[in-house]
Design brief:
With 420 residues, the protein is of the alpha+beta class. The protein folds into three domains: 164 residues, Beta Polymerase, domain 2 (2-Layer Sandwich); 155 residues, cca-adding enzyme, domain 2 (Orthogonal Bundle); 45 residues, no CATH class. Helices cover 53% and strands 11% of the residues. The strands form three sheets. Strands 3-4-5-2-1-8-9 form a seven-stranded mixed beta sheet. A hairpin with a 4-residue loop joins strand 3 and strand 4. The structure holds adenosine-5'-triphosphate.
Length: 420
């Protein structure tokens, strides 16, 4: 490993010009203030790997907020500061950057929130999750581009290894177990053998972590390009079952996630759709437990429960006698991801065309006439308007009205029938 690796050419080559200028200026201002400034974390790892990453995380030895204020003035950026944490976010048209005061962390007990103190970049790197995320690049002009690699991050990048910085890392913060799996699978790395043993040893500490923090890590996994890779690995390592003992990640799930991507293309599947497929093979009581453990937001929880509920009632949809208006009535109250999850995962092929018809066509159908039009045609103001609009929607759904004229004729017919 070269002792004095300098990343200034990687910075120039891989980051947009504007970000490079920002880093240069930040380094100059820091030096004038007598501060040391570093680029840290994922962006350093990705500069070395040649992967695109424009998330600038900067660490200052000294007051980060004061430096951020000067930067905001010099570059006309928006500035948000958090005095309590000694952090600041700078944002401008073409990008953003997070600045933090270098700090040390100590953990009084397993998985408790750490005690934080201002410190050096050395300590700031030591509190990090893995060696590959614990490198820094100096930004002050005297050292510009120099890699600070105190824990063997570069050699682990070359060896494709995810390695914790010390043996108590997962006890301090068990969410790092999920993070380790995420990086391993994203980068096609391996858990370094001792780190792997620590995962197995410390997996039970996951139960000490709040559902909110676990949910955050799970959501990060579901935003990866191929989340099933991390989920299958988590299953293999006994990590997935800590979310719920009945969860499985296997070939079935991988195939469904692949289908979800095809369905959602060109967008990525939503976290809600991925979650619905993850829990699809569980019963509603288990899904409720899963939702409450992870403290899922109301809307996400609803997607999961709707998906399971719909799964139990697919038989209704499979009958050829069911009209499109009935399909609409049954499904219009469901979260759309729940319907899509059933298209992808239902074990009842005869229901799938009806679900697909709803997602692709029925849910967009609206009558051409509105309340005002109905009044002009002679419908009395009040609840009758709503009822007529509903009847028109049903007529549209069942193909009994295709045009505005058809609808007008139906309304006049209904009014004549009422009068008669
Ligand atoms: P990604 O590539 O997924 O954006 P990142 O490496 O930028 O990941 P963030 O989650 O944005 O990761 O966190 C920024 C940095 O903070 C990480 O690189 C890591 O050094 C550190 N970090 C984040 N979470 C933890 C944690 N739980 N324990 C220790 N260090 C952490």
């Amino acid at each position: 490993m070269p002792e004095n690796k300098n990343l200034s050419s990687e910075i120039k080559k891989q980051l947009p010009k504007e970000l490079v200028e920002f880093l240069r200026l930040a380094g100059e201002l820091a030096q004038k203030r007598g501060q040391k400034l570093y680029l840290v974390g994922g962006v350093v790892r990705d500069l070395l790997l040649g992967r695109e990453n424009f998330d600038l995380d900067l660490v200052v030895e000294g007051d980060a907020i004061a430096l951020a204020c000067e930067m905001a003035e010099a570059r006309q950026c928006q500035l948000v500061t958090h005095q309590r944490f000694g952090t600041a976010k700078l944002a401008w048209d073409g990008g953003s950057a997070d600045l933090a005061t270098a700090r040390s962390e100590t953990y009084a007990k397993a998985c408790a929130l750490p005690t934080v103190n201002p410190s050096t970049v050395r300590d700031d790197l030591l509190r990090r999750d893995f060696t590959i995320n614990a490198m820094a690049v100096a930004l002050t002009p005297d050292l510009y581009g120099q890699l600070l690699d105190l824990y063997g991050g570069l050699s682990d990048l070359q060896g494709k290894l995810v390695r914790v910085l010390h043996g108590k890392s997962f006890i301090d913060d068990a969410t790092r177990i999920w993070r380790a799996i995420r990086y391993e699978q994203r980068l096609n790395f391996h858990l370094e053998p001792e780190t792997l043993e620590l995962v197995k040893r410390d997996v039970d500490y996951l139960k000490e972590v709040s559902g909110d923090r676990i949910r955050h890590e799970l959501e990060l996994i579901l935003k990866e390009e191929f989340p099933e890779k991390a989920l299958c690995r988590a299953d293999e390592l006994g990590v997935l079952s800590k979310l719920h003992p009945k969860l499985k990640a296997d070939d079935w799930l991988s195939a469904k996630y692949e289908q979800a991507r095809r369905w959602s293309s060109p967008d990525n599947p939503s976290v809600g759709l991925y979650l619905a497929l993850l829990v699809y093979r569980m019963g509603s009581k288990d899904v409720e437990e899963f939702i409450s453990y992870l403290r899922l937001k109301k809307a996400s929880g609803r997607i999961l429960l709707d998906a399971i509920d719909l799964k139990a009632n697919l038989g209704q949809l499979a009958s050829p006698q069911v009209t499109s208006a009935q399909v609409y009535t049954w499904l219009s109250g469901c979260a759309i991801e729940a319907v899509v999850a059933n298209i992808i995962a239902a074990g009842m092929p005869s229901a799938v065309p009806r679900l697909t018809e709803f997602v692709e066509k029925l849910r967009y159908i609206r009558p051409a006439l509105n309340g005002e039009d109905l009044k002009k045609l002679g419908v009395a103001q009040g609840p009758e308007i709503k009822e007529m609009l509903h009847r028109l929607l049903e007529a549209r759904l069942d193909g009994k009205a295709a045009t505005r004229r058809d609808e007008e004729a139906l309304v006049l017919n209904w009014l004549a029938g009422k009068g008669a």
